[in-house]
Structures are given as structure tokens and as C-alpha cells.
Amino acid sequence: MINKKKWVFVGVLLLLVLFIHLFSAAPYVTEQYYVTGLYPFISSFLRWITGWLPFSLGDLLYGAIVIWLLWKTVRGCKVLFKKQLTWPSFFNKLSAWFISMLLIYIAFNLLWGINYNRQGIAKELGLTMEKYSPTDLKTLNSILLQKINENKVAIVRNGLVPLTSNELFKRSAAAYAEVNKKYAFLQYHTASVKTSLWGWLGNYIGFTGYYNPFTGEAQINTTVPKFLQPYTTCHEIAHQIGYAKENEANFVGYLAAASSKDSLFLYSTYLDLFLYADRNLYAVDSSAAKSFAHQLLPSVKADLKELSDFNRRHQNPVEPVIRWMYGKYLQSNQQPSGVLSYDEVTGFLIAYYKKYGEL
Questions:
Q1: What is the rounded CA–CA span in Å between residue 145 and residue 213?
Q2: SS3 content of the chain, % helix, strand, coil (to 5)
Q3: Which of 74, 130, 209, 289 could serve as 282's disulfide partner, Cβ 3.0–4.6 Å?
Q4: Which is nearest to 353 in space by CA: 291, 270, 234, 271?
Q5: Mind listing the pLDDT tens digit for each residue in 309-343?
Q6: Would you say 37 and 128 are in contact if contact means Cβ atoms under 8 Å apart?
Q7: Is the dihedral of CA 229, 234, 235, 239 positive or negative?
Q8: Distance between CA atoms of 188 and 260, rounded to whole angstroms?
Q9: What mean pLDDT, rounded, does the chain reach?
Q10: Can you give the pTM of this predicted structure?
């Protein structure tokens, strides 16, 4: 059974959980004291610790956790099979699991998770987020279509080749240095972007990159088609600097990539955004969406076919389950649309275009 010291420890942890919940409930307080106060120091410190490592410490950490969980599961099954489990040992194990979950929750939120409750990029840019119309979507798709084709032509004309991982990460950091000149709040210091050790696995469970809040590293799946990687990297860096929600990370990633003036980055970004916007348009006007997609250059369509073939080769029955679980995680963190939150970058793009007249 749980002894007195454990009860006290659990009580303290529960108080910390309650404090985090109450603190996060006030976006203004969160913004002032965590987002622009404590978090920049936490994130820079984590990247300072892990950035110099030539491998992903976060990947190793998660790999070790998976192996440990499998080992504990096997041991637990053996105990049950041999009927060696007693009520006292069961409650001890249950209490240990409960304490572990509380510690993980507290660490996750203090190191990064509170950012889910920030006021957000729309507030910082003074964007008016309104319900957009089919006409707005058509205007956006038209602009993105032109940007995609223009940058694909530039890539072919200039003989640009896909970037190595190191060059990709350097140019991504440079893109943030550039956007920081325009928006002072988009600061990225002490870069820590790594090639994921589990990219091959990510192809089957559906991730192109992820941010590890416990190590401060951004992991990029560099086994996916090369034209996806610049925008993915800018997206993950947006998570590093505190934009936790996926729609906001998508938009901040766009702001950074668009500031780079690099055709490889611009093409990657506008193509990804077009896929979101055209999918949204398809829901209200499928004919218009098909018309825009038809106007993509043949070389762009070839890239999309490469992506489609890549996804088809890695289809498996586990991915939908992982996608469902990830959707539930997003819903529990201020993103009621789940995995469709990524698509909501469309609203930010339309609001930004209406205010500034450009994309």
C-alpha cells in the first residue's frame, strides 16, 4: 500500500497539476509570465544542452521508453500467468504508475505544454479571424497555385537540387533569422534540429517530423520526399519557439519559409499549404478544387504522384489507430478538430492576406 510519504508526495504533485491547470486557464497570464517570460529561457537552455549532439537524444529517450514498456508488459503478463500478483503489490504498481503519469504531465507542461494556452499568433499579428467564404478559398487557391508553379519553374531553371540534411537545417535557421527582422517575437536561438532515427518507422505511423518537449529537439523524418522537408522543418522549429497548436505552427512555418526567398523552401511551403486549402475548397466546391489542381504544372503533379506512391507503399493497419490516438491528444490540448487542426492554417492565410494584401 502507499505509505505516508508517498501520500504526501502525491498530494504535492496533485497541487502542482491544479496550479498548472488554473494558471493555463488565463491566456493573458500565460502569455505574460510563461510564453514571453519563462519559456524562452527553458527552450534555449534545452537546445543549448542537446543542440551540440550529432544525434537525436529525444529519439533515444523515446526508444528506451518503448523497450522498457515492452519489458514491463512481458513481466506483468508472466506474473499474471503464474498467479503471483497480490493485492498489495497491485496497488503499489498502480500507485507507481499514477505517480509517473503525474510527473510526466507536470514536466510536459512546464517544459512546453502550457504554450497550448497562449494568446496566439493571430493576436500578435492583429489578425481578424473570421469565417471565410468559398470566394475567399478560391482567391487563396489561385494565389498558392501561382506561387507553386512560379517556384517550380525557378527550381528547374536554376538547376536546384534537394538539400542535404545539414544544409536544410542551416537554411531553416536562417529563414527564422530573416523573419525575426520583420517580427521581433519570432526569435530562434541555439538551433537544435536533428534527423530522426525513427524516420523509417514514421513512414508507417504517419509522421514527417515531431518536437520533443523533454529535450527541446526538433526531429525531421528525412526519408520522406525531399520537397516536403523544408516546410516540415520550419513547422517543427515553430513548435520549438513555443507555437504548440498545429495550425499556428503551420502558419509560423509559412512566415519563416516565405521570408527566406529560397525557391526550395517557397515551393515546399506553398505546395503543402495548397494541399490544405484545396482540400478545404473541395468540401464546398469540388469542381473548383479540381480545376485548381488541374492547373498545376506537370512537374508539380509528378511530385504529388511521388508523394501518393510513397504513402501507398507505407500503408498499414496501424496508422489509422495512431492517427486516431494523436487526434485525441490534440483534442485534449485545445485543438477540438484533432488531426484536422493542420488544415486550419487556411483561416490564418486568408486573414493575413486580407490584412496585408500578400502571401
A1: 35
A2: 75, 5, 25
A3: 289
A4: 270
A5: 999 998 888 777 777 777 777 677 767 766 566 66
A6: no
A7: positive
A8: 14
A9: 90
A10: 0.92
> Which are the contacts of 234, defined by CB distance < 8 A and separation ≥ 6?
172, 175, 176, 252, 253, 254, 256, 257, 265, 269
Looking at the DSSP bridge assignments, the partners of residue 211 are: 218
* 299-318 CB burial, b ≥16 within 10 A, e <16: ebeebbeebeeeeeebeeee
CA 99 to chain centre: 27
Confidence at residue 4, expressed as pLDDT on a 0 to 100 scale: 77
Cα separation of the two ends of the chain: 61
Q: Give the HSE-up count for residue 161: Cα atoms under 13 Å, Cβ half-sphere.
A: 3
| Cell 492576406, located at residue | 353
Q: Per-block average pLDDT, block size 10, for the chain (359 residues)?
A: 76 94 91 94 94 92 90 74 67 82 94 94 92 92 97 95 94 96 93 92 88 95 96 97 94 96 96 94 92 96 95 84 74 68 84 93
